[in-house]
Specification:
The chain contains 14 helices and 20 strands. Strand 7, helix 6 and strand 8 form a beta-alpha-beta unit. Helix 1 crosses helix 5, helix 6 runs parallel beside helix 13 and helix 9 crosses helix 10. The chain is elongated, with a radius of gyration of 27 Å. It is an alpha/beta fold.
Amino acid sequence: MNTRRSCPAWVLGFLWCALTPVHAWADALPDPDAQVLAGRALYRGDKQFAQASRLQGVAMPGAACRQCHGPRGEARSEAGIQVPSIQWASLMQGRDARAGYRSAQGVLRAIVHGEGRQGRALQAPMPQFRLTAQEQASLLAYLKVIGTDAEPVPGVSARSVSVVSILPLSGPQADAGRRVREAMAARFDAINALGGVFGRRIDWRALDSASSAARASKVARAALQDSRSVPFALVGSLLPDPDEALRLSLKQRGVPMVATLGVAQREPAQPELTYLLPSLEAQLRDLAAEMDRRCVVKAGDEPILVLHPPHAHSIDTMREALPRSRLQVVEATGVWAPGAEPRTAATGPVIALLAQAQMAQLRAQLSERLKASSGPGCLGSLAVLSGRPPPDRSGRYAEVVALPMPPVIQDGAQPDGAALWSLLGDTAARVFAEVLARSGRALDVERFSQALDGLRHFQPVPGLSVSFGPQQRHGFDVTYLWRENAHEPLHTNP
């Protein structure tokens, strides 16, 4: 075999607040489960073999069975080579006019000595593994159940699937956390009352992060290491930016973070991470493209001035997100102070990444400058940082506001902060349940991830569409508010 201190305030017309080594848990389980799980860790590469495998005399440290045989041991093609099934039923059956393996010892000889069916030598790229007695027993125990309903999946049993949410249930953001918790609990209770998903209850619990990003990651890591109740997934957590230790733990254990709430700084590259709301990076990128389409042509080829808050990570995100190949960007040398003139003449558009109070003063200043026929003709901002523009204003500049989610209430009405958190919590629960149903009865992380990546235009509530894919790790699309002048109403442009 080959191998989230207090969080910042994100505003969307109302207060928006978001929290910005493998442990041998199998050893605590009773036999034979511990042996099967130990074999699973060896097979998947979560635990290294005591000695490196060898291929034609060359050591191959880090080789894992999953690399060639896949997550379920099914027959497949790998790098142009046909890899046979190693599920136990297939091993015991004949193939290519050759009898099946007669016993577990025959399978072991293939793994250790490269001796295949009827004593024929196995060819490259099949290495030979120098297994300890414990590794032999563990690997054989796992091969007997891989690809079957008997295969153990952390957090999954015949009657339940265990999930956890990390939420601020105490501290400054406790109200938001409680709203999310209540909505998710109500949704999962309703699903369980109807029999669950494929007969499995969703066994859900919320853990308190106390409104601290650092504590949120720590609590999540502890949940993953709890041998008594290992979760299948983290769902709807207010944890937009996991720390590196949590990212590593998620990767090693293959635990997905599903429909995470809050706004991350950057788009996640890690496949285990998915969000409901697009990152600041995605919002900035789409805002710049929308301003290029609507504003830059009118303003000529003049540069875009960027006014930003005093957070180094936000500045770095802005630099990476703005498409400098298409737009000439002039970055402010420091934080814009209310009442101060922006650096440079600033006769082109402005992207303002400011707090809501600063935005009100900036809008007033821009209106005054336009009376003298000088100043930016177009202003862009992110609603999660700067809020929505006021419904009534004077001035002639155009304005583009990027929103992190589609409109969910018709006729321009917007939910208040409490209703928003309830909506997000309910949406996260609905998304998880939908993906769970699409994964099928034989549930594992691979099938779940495939179903999540295939979720397109799912509407948990009318008018609110959620889509995920291998290249799209946030469920909501960025939308826009556009106003041409003071007499036009706001328009939403997907």
